[in-house]
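Progress note, project year one: complex with manganese (II) ion.
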Amino acid sequence: MPGGTAREGMGPELTTTHEKQTHTTHAGLAAWVEQVAELTQPRDIRWITGSPEEWTELTDQLVDAGTFVRLDESKKPNSFYCASDPTDVARVEDRTFICSVEEKDAGPTNNWMAPDEMKARMTELYRGSMRGRTMYVIPFVMGHLDAKAPMFGVEITDSAYVVVSMLVMARCGDEVLRKIEETDASYVPALHSVGAPLAEDETDVRWPCSDTKYIVHFPEERAIWSYGSGYGGNALLGKKCYALRIASAVARDEGWMAEHMLILKLTSPKGSVRYIAAAFPSACGKTNLAMITPTIPGWKAEMVGDDIAWMRFGEDGRLYAVNPEFGLFGVAPGTGESTNPNAMATIDRGNSVFTNVALTDDGDVWWEGMTDEPPAHLTDWLGNDWTPADGEAGTKAAHPNSRFCTPAKQCPMIAPEYDSPDGVPIDAILFGGRRKTTVPLVYESRDWTHGTFIGATLSSETTAAATGAVGVVRRDPMAMLPFIGYHAGDYMNHWLEIGKSADASRLPRIFGVNWFRRDDEDGSFLWPGFGENSRVLKWVVERLEGDADAVETAIGFVPTADSLDVDGLDLTREQVAKAIRVDDADWEAELPLIQEWFDRFGEQLPAELWAQFDALKARVSAG
Ligand code: GTP
Ligand code: SPV
Ligand code: MN
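Model obtained:
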């Protein structure tokens, strides 16, 4: 993989000089750091080592600056509350660009600008943008340091908040840098500035950022430039920018997959182990399913990953998934003892950063859905006094996209396989979204190509994870719409190619799910969700093992009335039937929306997917 690493022309003398100045023997890296410093003019440069002392120093400094509030040690040890600027709370999809050399390679779903033009524009933004600030250099690896081909990156940032968050979210520091040096490895250069230079004597604001934002990817060069935002997905560049957008382009070239998926290990009462991956759009339930506490007896769940899966074929022809991340950056609202006790236990162990949640008077955090009753008084995410009366009047104490940033290893049900650089063999893939209507609780595809069609036409109501309207149904192919680093039509084709390159019997089986269907009479959720989703997982596993019945419908196989285990569930037969129902008239109404979506891709929409569309249409009208 090419990166900013050219060593050519660098004599040993120059390397020695660089070593003194920048703490690396890697000439390409030293040169890039110097070049960025020259452009951005920071006050000083600091290389991130990953030591505990460094964490303490940086978090103390963030507390002194007013960016962090240290939480009570007895409640959340070594943890911090942080409120962002109210304008910088989510991913900015309209400011996110895929700057491929050719516009056609970015496709119809990405913003594009010519790389030279974008670089010229951003170079002017970066000029002097770190004045008065420290420039941090963070060597990191996505995935395992001892992977066959470790996926290195180096983020340069002028935000200590970003450094602390990256230390949680990725494997960072000296050990990584040494390996980059020893193997003269290439790495993805990832440049980030909040875009808020400080004049001499100017006091800093709590959350520096800029009204001008650019989140930019150069897929051929494997480089990332980000400017103006401090929010997770815009600023922690190892996560969405590298592990999805850049990695998806690498994966296409190299025959593997970078996906927005959780990875779950399930053990049945019989002791059989299955690994399930699931792609749901942002804020649609990945972290919750990854940490599920099954409500049905005898089933055990363990988390391998909660947001990103990198999948490659193993020597046995099966698809193996690894979680490239080191932490969890989870949606706070809705997370509580009754919905996700494993997440609560994870954050209770401390070492976490909470952004845009509410602060309690006794130095803890709170958000909607943590407990049934809110505390009598809070400081809300905007810094205002908040009481339950404000809640009743509709003012949220926590921003809907407030997040906890916490080490994955603190999760009490993390699978030992999390530490395996080779990953786990995936048995089933679930595609799901938020749909009030139409899409049943669970259905199974006919084969990989049909499953690819289900993924390619996945739809969901938009959430607060990105700026813009919430609750609008949009197509979100494989839950990757905001994260595909190239042409989305080519991405769908890559899925089909993966299927063709494999022995069909070894491929994961593909299912669709929807936890969010509503009762059209009273608008309530038809399915209780959370731990009860284990019943759906059980049906999926039993389908894999040939033990569960299904009926064929226009869209695939759905559970028979008796094959879904609803034992002990407080639902009437009628409610269950409503949740799993496939209504041909609903799907007839869906067809023009799918057609409109596919039409956007013109010639680049794989013919197999049009064939799937025609087959669905024929089945719906025959129904
Ligand atoms: P990203 O981190 O943005 O990629 O999101 P995610 O897919 O990991 O979503 P997450 O699990 O954090 O869930 C987002 C929201 O959906 C939270 O408010 C959850 O409480 C809610 N949620 C998750 N699972 C269910 C479910 O089964 N039923 C219902 N009704 N809500 C759910
Ligand atoms: C998402 O939006 O899908 C997230 C949060 O997982 S962020 O990392 O900010 O993109
Ligand atoms: Mn995500």
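Confidence is low (pLDDT under 50) at residues 1-21.
The first helix runs from residue 12 to 22.
No further modelling is planned for this target in the current period.
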